[in-house]
Amino acid sequence: MTLKIYADRMSQPSRAVIIFCKVNGIDFEEIRIDLSKRQHLSPEFKDINPMRQVPAIVDGRFKLFESHAILIYLACVFPGVADHWYPTDLFKRAKIQSVLDWHHSNLRRGAATFVVNTALAPALGLQRNPQAAAEAEKHLSSSLSKIESFWLKGSGHFLLGSNQPSIADLSLVCEIMQLEVLDEKDRNRILGPHKKVQQWIESTRNATRPHFDEVHKIVFKVKERLHTSKEKSETESGVKTALNSKM
Ligand SMILES: N[C@@H](CCC(=O)N[C@@H](CS)C(=O)NCC(=O)O)C(=O)O
């Protein structure tokens, strides 16, 4: 029975799970749960994940949600997954777990809240919330500083001083990749000061090519669409202002 992955590629943790499977040659069927069409709220999907979030998997009779748990399961169950993704060494494993737990209440909270309250708000039918965005930016910048000064300290190109990526690198980098949809000036202000983080994103991308780029295509497509519609509305409002000033 083929592993089923319920995912929306606009979701950061969904992308991490899909890239992991592709990089490790794990056969799977991708079942798209389109969040913009609210398919995650359907009764059929509730049966897969009662929490109504993506990603979720079904492996035979076994169902699982929460991306970190899914990545750990896949790394342990499928033969052929290289040890560096989730090392058998228990000390290394515990450190990876520590990064993953930290991620959920820090980087993820800051990044997702900032993007939803800025670039993605109109597309999601939400009002931009500048106060929530400002709070989230503080959280996000502080998380990036901690990645730079703590998790990436050491000689390797990856988290915890490693020379090869683990599931934590993939999970955190996929989270950061959503910043691509931001306005260039917002993205540069937030990511610009963190040179090590930028190098690490590139290292993770290189280590998981071509799948990383393929799975992230949708993010760049959304970015293009958001920016084209923003330019269009700015041009329209510029034309209106010009017309009004002539009246
Ligand atoms: N902790 C979860 C987070 C899952 C999550 O937040 N998924 C989002 C997409 S990135 C979702 O399904 N949102 C729909 C909703 O919460 O209504 C994980 O790592 O899998």
From TrEMBL:
Q: Which GO terms describe its biological process?
A: toxin catabolic process
**UniProt EC number:** 2.5.1.18
A single Gene Ontology MF term assigned here is:
glutathione transferase activity
Q: Where is the GST C-terminal domain?
A: 89-225
Domain (GST N-terminal): give its ranges. 1-82
The EC category is transferase
Looking up InterPro entries in the UniProt record yields: Glutathione-S-Trfase_C-like (IPR010987), Glutathione-S-Trfase_C_sf (IPR036282), Glutathione_S-Trfase (IPR040079), Glutathione_S-Trfase_N (IPR004045), GST_C_Theta (IPR040077), GST_N_Theta (IPR040075), GSTT1/2/3 (IPR043377), Thioredoxin-like_sf (IPR036249)
For this UniProt record, give its keywords in alphabetical order, as a comma-separated list: Detoxification, Transferase
Q: Which reactions does this protein catalyse?
A: RX + glutathione = an S-substituted glutathione + a halide anion + H(+)
Query: Among its keywords, does the record have Transferase?
Result: yes
Q: Which PANTHER family match?
A: GLUTATHIONE S-TRANSFERASE T1-RELATED
The entry sums up its family as follows:
Belongs to the GST superfamily. Theta family.
> What's the protein called, per UniProt?
glutathione transferase
